[in-house]
Specification:
Four copies of one chain form a homotetramer. The first copy, chain A, is an alpha/beta fold. In chain A, 29% of the residues lie in helices and 21% in strands. Chain A has two domains: 2-124, 3-Layer(aba) Sandwich (Rossmann fold); 148-309, Dihydrodipicolinate Reductase, domain 2. Chain A has twelve helices and 15 strands.
Chain lengths: 341, 341, 341, 341
């Protein structure tokens, strides 16, 4: 197969390109950049590619469709929706890493993203690809979930689907490394500001809240809201979502553990641990590690869900979705070692 | 005045010594070490003191009482209680940075500390010195609060004292730098393990839980439990306690803000901010910065309370307690600049 | 005394302001900003000053001269020289933290700084204040040395002044934390780029090279060149200069050590160590720690010279120069504890 | 092929195991541990392997030889030499990641390693496998080079082999991340000590000095000594060797560049850059990136040579040597992406 990446210069595009190069089902990767006018050597756009001989083509939907079997959008929110139309019209396979097609309601998108939304009937064509828990019903436009959303939803699914917890009690304290803040220079990602520091950001305004809520509600309509807060921590990669929920009376620790193990029994990527996992165990991989800690005094359960935000939270899950769509093995291109030590 | 420090080689003792050297009310600091047999040059015990000419004396309670006006215990939990008797007997001024006299109940101490407790009547003689919120009733034995406890109690006091929140809803996600884990070598504080990582530790077993609970219950007996979790983050100094509480119906954001400002109006060290404070603003100082973020959808309030664990969470608050006991100005020895940039 | 700071919003200005507030000889600090039009609350210019009530005035040389006894320029290179004229004309005391008056030759300044230089006769009025090694001959315009220059010159002085080394053999590998790169956002100080990385920068083009050379040549005309290279390391503060020099035949390790001890015998800030000092011992202080390691096989000597780039390398040395000018004790305002742990 | 790893619990063994699992020529990896008495689940020895079902066998040379086609020693220096005899006797393929067989002279080994050496005739059987520059003459016992040695030798080879530099002028300032210091707890790798710090260590006593010297002398007998110093920097992985050499009169920058490009023209792993490479470009890969900066004033050349100490400096080069020995493609198992962002 031949695949296209649009948006190679951002972090997600870069990681995606690295992974796809090893995918046994792909023989060629064609690179495009939405803001180019003419073909340009990759190393001019991103100096880390010095010594590679690869050109990047300008965006041209007809060309892309003609020369590829699928396209990955690694373009920013607000940009993707402007480029997606021809692919939707042609029912061409798209894996979209941006947030533009994750919400089904344009008005809600505009409320959280502060950008113009795609039309609601376009949004309706997309499939939210939480790859470890859902199966593509045959849709060709896949909205790849957000990084926080992935770690939170994988951590909450067994509890919410089975109605084991008080749906009003969900408190999520999520921590992310700086790669989540992207390549764009900003004060909060200036080394001096972020190093030796912790920074809570976008309180109650994070774009992943509606995406998480939509999925939770679909699993269990009793879930009406979540308290979700994000903190920047001075590491490069990784997300830890510390999820606090009040367990319903009568639900035991053993029942909870069993539920998690059942839900993820056959998963190649989600693993339930007997200890509380740390970020180091997942960075570099497409895995989600989950640990549980029940407090019999408070009846709160802590779910500790960790992922690599760039892989499971972006490029890796995109490949999972690609594999599902084209019936490749789930872990094609995703047999990865953690970055240890 | 002359003061003694017992336990100069640990992190808290080191910071305390540095601060006391600048205290305008102190003319001499005498150093003692509980496990010494004979006087020893300080630089032999701690190489960072090379080029200072200072000796450390072996522990001798009679000598200490004779030559000093007050003593600071910077000894580990389990050690202090074995050394404290003569000072309690003599009603000699003690500021105790360890956890040995914070709990009033020996059995509870042993449950959480896994070490033998002091006698209950000894414990009864001590005063829990949460210096920004309480006034020493004239007791000479001051138990200096724990670092997490300080940041949590200062963040919760206005809410709990005034009954503004659902007392069953308190969830605390506290993050600490590695200095909180002490000087002792351990796997979790090995650079390779802690750097580029987040580690949840001692889930539901942290020693500061009973200390926090005892104070909260005293303020408001309706508080029956807290969900308290601690995560090690790869920074040297600082604690951020992210405190989540459900606000009672009818309580508005403005009322909450006002309460915080009233409670800390005259405080030299606790400051209420309009934004969510970060750790960098307090490291190096004895300040506690508090920010608030109310979520009208979930009715949860986030209290973001940050301190320098070594100063406000240990040596600085010890000096505050010392100042109170001897009627010095609250900020003697504590006019400090944050470590910026 | 009353003193002025021009340029409070940069890192050096911020640190300087913090230190001057504790200086026992100063009763008021007036803040000015060269690019302001009207008085502005400090916290609007720099959010870390929230909760302080301090205004910043626009730059007005006549006002500054009228209301102050001395002025500190913490303005960038290229800016200072444009503002300095009235102060030079009035022979008003200036401590200039920028690089604009460190070189005596305008053409050389322009070659290294790529900015217009001050006139040569203005440059001639300034005094290069390497405070631990020279005494102000009575000049009111003090050019405060650069951070790298300070660590290198203090490390080389005893060797170069006494002609103990091969003057052609000087190789300096200097490492600096990111605060040295300033507050300005840039790719190399983006957290993701600088964290978990080492970056050599400005090879053979660093502005401090001519400043170091001028001083070395003055001490010993045989020194014709130095090989000086700088590497950014992922820490906030601190410089380590690893200085390699070939020792002349017949010069012994003991002779070298003795020379260093003699030169810095009475210094309050420069200390010679028996081990190789690390950065942690000096961050937060105005000290320079020096260690020596002689290799009898290669006849190379390593001089390990470490400073806090923001204090000894900027604001602290500026205060030393201020103290010299006004005959205060050398360590007024500079009795500081290292940031340990 | 089936291969054995002895010493899976150290950092090098862990990385090696991860890489070998993807090697297309290997169908099974058998794990052994020299200090085990009975078969033990891997996750008991190293908790990061929870959820894998892999057993580790006790060391038994006969069993290892019977069941494997080659063995990798990832055991510490001083241990390997005690275990190697049966493999040498059987002329069984060994790739030895320890330092025990890198030096040909037992007395020199003992001087630098402070441990008993293997016999000189055993040492003579081994081949020093600097894989990018030498070809195995058919020896079955391969001593894999040290991490620093690899980065230094690859950086110096084109200069030393072609006699382009003053052989007396070699000064190497090498910086390493903490993984180089190993898994063993120690004060210098305690987070609080190493974070926000730089630490020069083992001045003039580093074990890699004789290994580098032996190779350099073999290339060019005029090289009599090197000045080599190592500094610990607060990153997990990576080595940057800043190599300073005085270029001979008449040698131009262009000649140097050309030499480097010729020497590494056909190398899959050593790449010459137009800029000065940083560590981030190589971490996660088996590559060595080299940049050059010539100073026409001082006639010094800086060679900036960066590698991932765990891969090119250990496990990756071991696999290169394995590939050479068994005539696999050079990059089998070594097509790796850098850890970016």
């Amino acid at each position: 197969m031949q695949v296209a990446i649009i948006g190679i210069t951002g972090y997600a595009g870069m990681v995606l390109y690295g992974l796809l190069k090893k995918h046994p089902g792909i023989i060629q990767i064609n690179l495009y950049q939405h803001d180019l006018i003419e073909p340009t050597p990759l190393e001019e756009l991103a100096p880390q590619y010095e010594n590679t001989n690869k050109a990047v083509q300008p965006y041209d939907s007809a060309e892309i469709i003609k020369n590829n079997d699928a396209v990955f959008f690694a373009t920013p929110a607000g940009v993707t929706s402007k480029l997606a139309q021809p692919f939707l019209d042609a029912d061409f396979p798209v894996i979209d890493l941006s947030g533009d097609f994750r919400l089904k309601n344009g008005a809600e998108y505009e409320k959280w993203y502060h950008k113009p939304a795609a039309d609601n009937d376009e949004l309706a064509k997309s499939y939210y690809g939480l790859a470890d828990l859902s199966t593509n019903p045959g849709k060709n436009y896949i909205a790849n979930p957000g990084c926080y959303a992935t770690s939170v939803l994988l951590g909450l699914a067994p509890l919410v689907q089975s109605d084991l917890i008080d749906p009003d009690s969900i408190v999520i304290d999520a921590k992310s490394g700086l790669s989540g803040a992207g390549k764009q220079l900003s004060e909060s990602s200036h080394f001096i500001q972020s190093n030796e520091n912790l920074q809570i950001y976008k309180p109650n305004e994070h774009k992943h809240i509606p995406e998480i809520m939509a999925q939770l509600k679909q699993w269990n309509p009793k879930v009406d809201h979540i308290q979700f807060m994000t903190t920047l921590v001075p590491i490069n990669r990784g997300i830890m979502s510390s999820i606090y929920v009040k367990v319903k009376p009568g639900v035991t620790e053993a029942m909870i553990k069993e539920h998690f193990e059942n839900v993820y029994h056959s998963s190649k990527f989600v693993k339930i641990y007997n200890h509380l996992p740390t970020i180091k165990g997942v960075v570099g991989t497409n895995e989600c590690h989950i640990g549980l800690s029940y407090n019999p005094t408070t009846h709160y359960l802590l779910v500790d869900s960790v992922i690599d935000n760039m892989i499971k939270g972006a490029a890796g899950q995109a490949i999972q979705n690609f594999n599902q769509l084209f019936a490749f093995d789930a872990d094609f291109g995703l047999q990865l070692n953690p970055v240890l030590p």
